[in-house]
Amino acid sequence: MINLELPKKLKASANQAHQVAAQIFRPISRKYDLAEHEYPVELDTMAAMVEGLSDSGGDIGGAAGGRADSGKTGNANGGNMSALLNSLETSWGDVGLMLSIPYQGLGNAAIAAVSTDEQLERFGKVWASMAITEPSFGSDSAAVTTTAVLDGDEWVLNGEKIFVTAGERSTHIVVWASVDKSKGRAAIKSFVVPRDAPGLSVARLEHKLGIKASDTAVLLLQDCRIPADNILGSAEVNVEKGFAGVMQTFDNTRPMVAAMAIGVGRAALEELRTIFTEAGVEVSYDTPAYNQHAAAAEFLRMEADWEAAYLLALRAAWMADNKKPNSLEASMSKAKAGRTGTDITLKAVELAGTYGYSQRPLLEKWGRDSKILDIFEGTQQIQQLIIARRLLGKTSAELK
Hints:
Blueprint: H1 8-34, H2 43-55, H3 79-93, H4 95-98, H5 106-114, H6 117-123, E1 128-131, E2 147-151, E3 154-165, E4 172-178, E5 188-194, E6 200-205, E7 216-227, H7 244-279, H8 294-321, H9 327-351, H10 353-357, H11 363-372, H12 380-392
Parallel strand pairs: 1-4
Antiparallel strand pairs: 2-3, 3-7, 4-5, 6-7
Helix pairs in contact: 1-3, 3-7, 3-8, 5-7, 7-8, 7-9, 7-11, 8-9, 9-11, 9-12
């Protein structure tokens, strides 16, 4: 029999993350939604908490993820599963604030996915954002035009990166760049660029629909110099392998983004359930949906979708922790959760009527916040394309 109960150690960590969400994030959620680009000073306390728990082997949230323990045998619930559950809980509080947690950036997941042991030791405690998207492309990650040229014992990077989450606040940025444009996608590598690297600058911060507590930056790399050993993994260009090593990052981060959507979705379902109760609308699990109030029937549909998204995300994270190829499952979890998150939050606004559309509850904010979770780390359409390729056994050249 399959046991879907969470292990005790994961429950404890997830509970800590939930307390952070309930006690720190929820009370200031509206404040920083209305004060875009203002740094949430309350997160300074969290920075110390995260660092202290990290030193003691614990964690309270974020999308940093981890790598599987190569010496462990049997079933493993490691860094990826812990990060997924913590991302879910903290996103229940506020996605924008969750994305602003110091030392828990999406770039940290990239470091965990493809770094060498030495690099993991060196960069394991930095706060890393991830810079992939450029003005000339969005979801087609193979279209990177930023270049990296080796000059003695330094890499020289040139290019422009947009929509970089925590791009101004993080201490390091994981930048995708090509080391040889003539060799196509196989030459795309990840580089860890320190915030104070010469030639790196923040051009502007974006004004956004949602996740306003999180800074989203445009970064310029103009003859930006970093040490030669700041390239993640190997500098060798392997045409046979393509850029699978770099893309492995997404196998870790997509379930984390799915968890964010699942967390926001759960928040909306809980708020909606309270509104229903106060309005006298009963949701029954013993009566067929067609015999219930129309709003109750919608609630049951959304709850079922939410459960499916949650289980898909758990599977993708578990596979990553157990060193199983999970590209298909990561995309499935991201596609399902991204779509479900926007569906639930926007439907909750609708079902709550004028109250839901007002700023009295957080429903309308969650509706705005959820949209990005169906876009970044690969749009809904890109995820479906990846899934189709995997299921049909087609290459990217055969199925576009």
